[in-house]
Design brief:
The protein is of the alpha/beta class. The protein contains 13 helices and 13 strands.
């Protein structure tokens, strides 16, 4: 079962159904560094929020190939740069600044006056060689807070942070065969634009600045939450005595991690029953939860398992809260 609402409809439903959501439990699976804003917003609305991150971000070593792509971008070989996350923005900016420092050092090696002048300037404005396109407000904020000289360019954003929104941007729409696009992203992240632009003959390179792995404590946190549910409800079928917990999932990788943990805990309980032991935890199945998911690809993954979900097109806390209210009514 699924539904999709636009932002305005979600907000309207959320305002009219606030009372019905007060006892709703929401599991926030976003990485620790990105979870706080959503948790605070949902708690302020009276919801019970449990943070069980399904992803942690781990930096990847910068390779010589990455540096080659960065130098080619700085040389003006790409029509645009797409940055898909705040972490990718921060990582790319650090390398960009290092390359700029390297360039200035080479230019002024034999000029003591200029070297002294450079030391008086903490950070030099970075010269943007192409359009900078940020996917999402948080990513744009990282770029806007950096010292980027943008006489001819500015940090651009799609109206909606999905494939359709990106493809509707004039800077993307006008790309044609032979043009080159660079993407800053995380390993295994959303492949925004790729299929459509490749079919058009656009050449796409990407730099994966980080990878997303399952936190080592994720299963323990999930089991601890289940034990707390048992303590409040007793050894009974808790799914029948309260609304389904709603799980907020923002990526396919996060859902895969969630699925593996839920199934592992269920299998552990079955093994205990087979051994004629009382299970330490009465497990939930995947279907004992409802889901708020981001975008079409993730919605399709959840739909394939016939799970109840609500699809959203952005991760604004207001959008997610409104989806939860609509789901609960």
């Amino acid at each position: 079962m699924s539904s999709t609402l636009n932002h305005a409809q979600l907000i309207a439903n959320g305002q009219s159904n606030n009372e019905s959501s007060l006892t709703q439990v929401v599991i926030n699976t976003r990485p620790v560094e990105r979870a706080a804003a959503l948790t605070d917003h949902l708690q302020a609305a009276g919801l019970t929020v449990v943070e069980i991150p399904m992803l942690t971000l781990q930096s990847r070593p910068t390779t010589e190939q990455d540096m080659t792509l960065m130098r080619q971008w700085l040389a003006g070989n790409y029509k645009a740069l797409v940055i898909v996350s705040p972490t990718a923005a921060a990582s790319g900016l650090a390398v960009w600044q290092a390359l700029e420092d390297e360039r200035q050092a080479q230019n002024h090696d034999n000029d003591d006056d200029n070297n002294n002048e450079r030391k008086d300037i903490a950070i030099n404005a970075l010269q943007a060689p192409s359009y900078l396109i940020a996917v999402g407000e948080a990513t744009a904020s990282v770029l806007n807070n950096a010292k980027i000289e943008a006489t001819n360019y500015q940090v651009l954003q799609p109206h909606i942070a999905n494939n359709e929104g990106m493809l509707a941007m004039p800077e993307i729409e006008r790309l044609q065969a032979g043009d080159k696009l660079l993407v800053w992203r995380g390993l295994g992240g959303r492949r925004l634009l790729v299929d459509t632009l490749l079919a058009r003959g656009v050449h796409i390179d990407s730099i994966a600045w980080y990878e997303r792995i399952m936190p080592v404590e994720a299963m323990a946190q999930y089991e601890q939450w289940l034990q707390g549910v048992l303590a409040r409800n007793g050894m009974q079928d808790t799914s029948a005595s309260q609304p389904k917990p709603i799980v907020v999932v923002s990526s396919g990788t996060a859902f895969e991690h969630w699925e593996s943990i839920v199934r592992a805990v269920t299998e552990k309980a079955l093994e205990q029953e087979t051994a004629r032991e009382t299970p330490a935890i009465l497990p939930y199945k995947l279907s004992d939860f409802s889901y708020v998911v981001l975008g079409e690809r993730l919605a399709n993954m959840v739909a394939e398992q016939q799970l109840s979900y609500w699809r959203v097109e952005d991760l604004a806390p207001e959008t997610i809260l409104a989806a939860i209210h609509a789901k609960a009514c």
